[in-house]
Batch of 3 targets.
Target 1
Amino acid sequence: MELESYPFVSLLKFGNFVIFKNIYIEASMKNSYWNNNGKYQREYNELKFLVPRMGKATTVAGELLRSVNRLYYDFYNNGMCNNTTGAINFLLEKRIIDQEIHNLVYQYAKEDAVYDGFYKNDPLQISMEEIVNKTIEFILKNPSSLSEVNSEDLFDYTDFCTEDELESCVL
C-alpha cells in the first residue's frame, strides 16, 4: 500500500474557508470506497443493506450511512453540484465528523464553491474518504446504532438559500 502525506496548514484556503490547521492526513485514492477498496470496505459492504432505496432509514446506523452515501455519490457523480447540506449537517450533529471537515465540505454541499478538482487526493476528496471511515468506525464502536430506531431524516437538516443568497445560489 502506497501512502502519501498531505500537510495542511492555515495558509491553505478555499474561498473564505481555512481548511485544516496543522493537521497531517495520509491517504491514497487507491484505497478509496469509490474503487471498492476503502479502509473498512468489507464492513461497509456488509452494512449497505441498512440504507433504504427511498426515504429515511429505520435505524440510526442506516441514516448515518444514507448521509454518507448521499455525499459520496454526489461528489463522485456530480462534482458536488447538488445541495447536500442535510447530509453533512446531520453527520456533524451526530458528532461523526468535526467542525473542520464540516466547514470544508459544507461550502461545496451548499453550492457556494464548485468542485473543479481532478479526484487526485485533494483536500475535498481526502475528506470524503475520511467521512466514510469515521462513520463506519462510529457504527463499529456503537453496535446499538444498528438496531436503534431512527426518528430523523437527513433532509430535515438541509440549509436552503436565503433571499440574500438567491442570485448566487443554484437550485
Target 2
Amino acid sequence: MSRGDGNRSTIAYAIAFLSLAGAFLAGCRDSEFDWLASSRHRSTGWIGEFKDDRFLAGREYWVYLPPGYDPLRRRYPVLYLHDGQVVFRRASGDPNSWGVDSACDSLILSGAMEPLIVVGITSGSTRFYDLTPKDVGPIEGGYATGGGNAYLSAIARDVKPLVDARFATLRDPAHTYIAGASLGGLISMYAGYAFGGTFGRVASLSGSFDTYFGADTLFQLARRGRPATLDRLYLDSGTVDDNLGEARFMRDIVLAHGFTEGASDFLYLEALGDQHGDYWFGRRMPLVLRFLAGSAAASAPTGRVAASAVH
C-alpha cells in the first residue's frame, strides 16, 4: 500500500470516528454529557429517565450506564428489570429499593462483573395485567390478567430497539438479560421460554409460580425443553413467608427438562430467613448480577444458603 493509500485510510477512519462521536454526543442529554465529561464517570454509573409514546402509551423507564461507559470503544450487555420504580436507589430515593445502581457500581469497579447497561421498566395500575402470561379473569381486587405476551412484545419491539439505537449495546440474546421479583419473576421466566430469540439469560427472585396467576402456561413451555438460546437461569426464594414451595416446583420442572443441578448455567437458591419484599430482593441482587453478568457463574452459592453467604 502506498503512502497516499495509508493517508486516505487514516483520514477515512478519522471521519468515521468523528461521525460516530458526533452522533452519540448529539443524543446525549445534558446530565449524561456532564457525567461523561466528569471524573465521576469513572467511579459512579449514570441514571436517566426516558419515556416514548411508542412504548405502552408513554410508559417510563430508567437506564443505568456503568462506570467508565465508553460507547466509542466497546459495547455492553443489557439487563431489563420490571418494577423499575424500585430498581435504582439514586433514582427512587427509597432506602428499601433494590439498589441495583449501587450494586452494579461496586461489582464493576471491583472486577467481579463485566460492565453492563440496566433498564428498569416502571409498573403501575396494569402491573397484574402486564406480568401474568395467561388470562385467568379478574383476580382479587378486580385486576385484569393475561397481558404478559403484549408486555414482553412491547419490550422486544419498542424499548429494546430504542435502547439499542441510543446506547452502545450488544444486541443478541446471549447478551440480553431479563429479571424480576414476585410477578416479575414469573414473567421473566416466561420470557426465557416464550421469547428466547430476545432474552438469553433470566433471573427470577421469589417468582409467583401459581396457577392463580396463569403460571400453568409457563409450566407447559418449560416441560417442552430448554430453548437453545436460554444461556443461564437463576431461580430463588426466601424461606420465611415467601414463594418457597412454588420455587421448588419450578426448579423440579427445569431440572427435568434441560438444566442440571450444580452446572454453571443454572443457579437455584433458598435464602434462609429472607422474606417476600423489596428489601429482601435487593439484598440478593448482587448475587443475581454476578450470576447473570459475571464470568464465573459456577462459583456462586447454591441450594439452601444462609443469608451471610448471599448478601
Target 3
Amino acid sequence: MKVHSDELTRAMTLYTAMMGEIKIRINSILELRRAGHFVPIPAQVLYESSYLQLRYICELIAMGCLVVHGDIPATKTKHMQKAYAADEIIKRLSEIHPNFYPHPVTAKSGPVMDKGTREGAPNYAPEE
C-alpha cells in the first residue's frame, strides 16, 4: 500500500536524521574536551556544555522511540506529539508498550539471527 510505504519512508528518514544528530552531539562533547586542553575554557563551562549535549541526546533517543513506534495509536496523541522531555516520553512509552526501548545487539557476519536471539548488554533498558 502506497500510504503505508510513504509513512514508513518518512519515519525511516526522520529516525536516520535523529541518529545522525546524536553522532554530531557525541562528537561535540569530544571536541569540547579536546578544546579544553588548548584553549583556556573554564571547567564549569565544559561540564555544562557536555551535559547539555547529553540531555539533547537523551531527548533524541526518546523521540526516536516515538518515531519507531509511530504505528501504535497512543503515540499519535496530541500530548505525546508535543512531548520533548526524555523522561516523560520514556515513562509514557513504557506504559503503552513495555518493550519499546531499542535492544543493543552485536552485529556478526553470517546467517541472519532469529528474532528471539539477541546478543548484547543484558541491562539495556532505562531504569529509574
